[in-house]
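Protein: Tetratricopeptide repeat protein
Species: Streptomyces diacarni
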Amino acid sequence: MRAKLTYFLLAAVLVVYFVLVGSRGVLLIEQGTPVTVPFGIAVLVLPFIGAWFLWHTTRFARRAGQLARELEAEGGLPVDELERTPSGRIDRASADAVFTRRRAETEEHPGDWRSWFRLAVAYHDARDTPRARKAMQHAITLHEAKPRN
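Structure follows.
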């Protein structure tokens, strides 16, 4: 719950920032000089890029959460079996061992979104965020492609 609250607070701050930056871009364009008009247009592009990124990230997080809820309802969420250091960080060797099992499971069932979801969690635990994100995106794609009953 705390992560959701933090996410929405930061998203709200970003939206306010986008509005402020956009208003500055409009003010620059209204100046009407050969220097301020192109600069104002360039400044206006930034909030659109930021809004697209925020939308894309929010959509990804919502879809991944939807998969997590569905997998939890099925009883298929991965169990936290990782060893931790005294400070609470995940032990690297433990994360690697779990990752090896998850990768083998995914290789056995490459069309199952559930195994890709668990592989994404294993990548995340092994601190490989780019691959975790790609694996989760693949799980989302497979989930959306499955036939509906």
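Remarks: Residues 2-66 form one domain.
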